[in-house]
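G., before I forget:
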Amino acid sequence: MMKRIDFSSLIGFFVGVAISSILVLLFKENPGDVLKVLSGSFLQSKFDMGLTMFYTTCFAFAGLAFSIPFKAGLFHIGAEGQIVLSAMMAAVMGIILPESIGTFGIILIFLATMVLGVLSAQAIAFFKVYKQGHEVVVAIMLNFVFAAIATYVVLQNYQNTESQNPESSLIKPAFQIAKSDSLKVFFENSAVSSFLIVAVISCLAVWFFETKTKWGLEIKAFGENPTAAERMGISAKKVNFLALGIAGFFSSLVGLTEVLGSTFQYKVGFSPAYGFLGIVVALLAQGHPIGILFSSFIMAVLHKGASDLDLETQFLTRDFSKVLQAIIIFCVAGAVYLNHRRKKS
Amino acid sequence: MSAEILLGLILASIRMSLPILFAASGGYFSEKSGVAQIGLEAYLLIGAFTAAAVSFQTNSLVVGYVAAALVAAAFAQIFNILIFKFKANSIVVGTGMNLLAMGLIPIVSKTLFESTGSTPAIDTSEAALNQSLIMVSVVTVLMLALCYWIAEKSSFGLQIKFAGEKSEALTSVGISPIKRRWQAVTLGALITGIGGAILSTYLASSYSPLMSAGRGFIALAAVIFAGWNLRKAWIVVLFFGFAEAIQIQLQNMNLNVKIPNEFIQMLPYLATLVALLLLKNKQQAPKEIS
Amino acid sequence: MSELNLIEFNNISKNYGSCVSLDQVYFSILKNQIHAVIGENGAGKSTLMKVLTGIVPPSSGAMVLRGKVYEPQSAQDSFREKIGFVHQHFQLADELTGWDHLELVARTQNIERKRLVDLVREKQAKFKWSLPLDKKIKAYSIGEQQRLEILRVLILEPEIIIFDEPTAVLSPDEIEDFLDFMLDLKKQGHTLILISHKLNEIKKVADHVTILCRGQLIASDSGANFTIEQMAEKMIGRKQQALVQAASGATGASYDLNLIGLKLNNNEILGVAGVDGNGQEDFVFKLRQNIGLLKLKFGDISEDRYRYSIYPKQNLIENFLIRHRETFTRLGLVKKTLVRREVEKIISEWDVRPAESDMIMGSFSGGNQQKFVIGRELWHNPDVILAAHPSRGVDIGAQEKIHQALLDQKKNHRAVVLLSSDLDEVLKLSDRFVILFKGAIKGPYLKGSLNSSQISQIMNGVDL
């Protein structure tokens, strides 16, 4: 049975864009021009479209990484650290594995990265379940620690000797399969790759998981009333480890999309805070997995557009995308409440 | 280790812990009143930028500090309106506040100073530095005394505690818990804003992008870690300051064994996690926190 | 002077949206009397008191206090008019001390610390109380908590004191003491408003009784003019139905519950009496543990619906499904269509209103939620049923239905454990009962083997 679609977050989104436009006026820019840059930049070329699709992929994974723990009542802001750590793992594996093992090597890269992603997220569950640590605090600490570890490992051992930038050397050519990816070729060798298809399938799979499986129901029930859920035999331990484990799995997919699908190396600071953008994406979709597909595309368009603001405007910078995201968060949060109140009365 | 190094280390610990001390005190009031406060980073950044910009323009530290406090408090009203008028989730909005501060400051900076990076440096003559030191000392002592008095002695502090623990008790004596929470968040932002001012005008001589570097989160961690107890939170903050001071000390010392920078940098965060692992952690969160 | 109207309610109405909570209620309260206001859940007693204390404004109508028009804007105004309110649910913060609570009140009323200390000492001496005011509330017993609640009101030296269901949490002996305390207050010149549904207590102390039913005034007259039966009838609006007792059948297999050797037969109701906070939680925990060990099917009508039984934002189907998820999943996948049919059966059998299986749980009234929960917990024909406070917060009609259902379960060879803080409920339904006191299980006692004074003594820890 289909539930009626809730448009409040869409309304909130447009109100947010409108408020941002007014803000743009304050900085003596033409809102029309700014909006044109923001929304139109991805249409400039196939390459730009491909880049936007790449962002969509990463945002969708990051959105799922936030939304599933959120259903279990966990505010998961640790995706950023998991993404960085798993990208490091993917790059390191791609560098050290011998080319001779071929496809098996790629499978190994996937497995190692995913396992690390899952474990790094479950570290939060560990502190939460066994040490009563607040998941937000633990995730913040882990974000710093993981970022430091990733940077250390890459720069100390695998620094690209041909580059001045802090980045690892390229993974072995045999593992750079995305180079011949037909999606990538179609979009003029842009950042996009078949991971986009994985993202679409993931959203559908999560929708199925949340509505049709026992574990999905258990997560949702626990998130809404943990005491009742425990009384009905749903273990807090299981829900925490499961929800965060799935989140870590999707975080690792962001890392894989970056390293195996786009740059074929680990670049320090590659993430434009995917972990936090995932929160915006998930909130905009109100946690609905199919909605996340759309909201990640919208956010990707804006993100791509914002990177052109430096060039196209005098005062606005790419940082404006953060302002836009913040205002959209606020408006969506407000619109959801107003909608609930309207329904009640 | 010579006494000189030890003394230097202690002084450095205190110096480094100042912004976190303010942010933790500010965060304490918000959390104690029952409002989860993840936006301390935003108030630190706003305070730091405002203080640096205003001090540079007016050539007055005092005006800079006052402006930092007021602008941060004004900025927090966005948070308040969304939380209390629109019943939005405080952690969601707090995340948004951090994003907003990070995005807004470079744009304002570019408009004012034609640079998205640092603000112009303030006066760093010896006289100015001395003045700054006196200023910071006075403000810090005043802040600690005032926070202690508000939290432990004043009616306002008592009411904040009831707002966080049992809001019906406040309602039954005719006081609105929402109003007290609103005031507590505002007071918290004001104090945290001053912490930001210290960051940009005392620990540095200008604002540089994202200079709070997670101190807001560390402050929040300190409050939670101290079990929402103000004085314990201060001690935890000093511990963080110590970890940071050691980090700087280690970087400056020419040790035979090279400890990688990244490991030194993650020391405070790692220390928090290890402490979480080792300590028996019976946290008493305010009952109504959300 | 004693015949002076202290408070007059003139046609007070209160609507919440389209829902009428009070409908043209009019009566007067005389000075220096104990005035009882009685009625079922949802009769409008609490709303009326909220109007009187300025917490909510009336939709229409007016109040007169001491001959003057009285329009309180907030609780502050009612303090000023010397009206004190002792709430049913204690408004105490576990982590703060007794003094903190007193100071909160004192400071808002500009009572200085020194005067507060004097007042507290005076009141404590007067009633021979010795509350540990330096300690946090979590160290207080229930009785002490109530005294602190009352003390908080007394330091404002109110003329009128409202008690909202004050005896709900007290043991029989404590209730006797409390009734004496009320008479004492009256002797000292206070006017008391007592909100209750315990008619025997009202009969003992009330000078005047006002009866509300569904927001309307039914009667307001001198207490002497009502018998307990008359009060009950007027309160419900009809006569109570008699329960159909099952004929005591052959004893089947007994379950050894292993709670200090408690054996449970599968055709009996075992009552668990005791004042709240005497180890009920622990009892339920051990009971569930033992049932789990014996791998028996368990019907869990929990002691706190909101905490343990429902998911307010999910619909009835999901609320049902999550409870019986093992039955309706295969290989981890759920079969929702089968569930709908079962849920609709429960809805019609238990007359859950509105009959919408897709409506979220939170939109149903408390009584309908409870009916659905009971239907859900009996759906799988459990071997053992825990019914903890099964009729708390439901109206009399639903209560009768629930009681009958428990008796029917017994007839169908199920074992029922009925835990309730309402002693009358336990004595009415159970075949045997135990009494909890400070975590210890006293009994079991056969129905009718103890008189009420003996029960009261056991509830207070006297070993007979």
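Chain A has 15 helices and no strands. The longest helix of chain A spans residues 103-131.

More on Monday.
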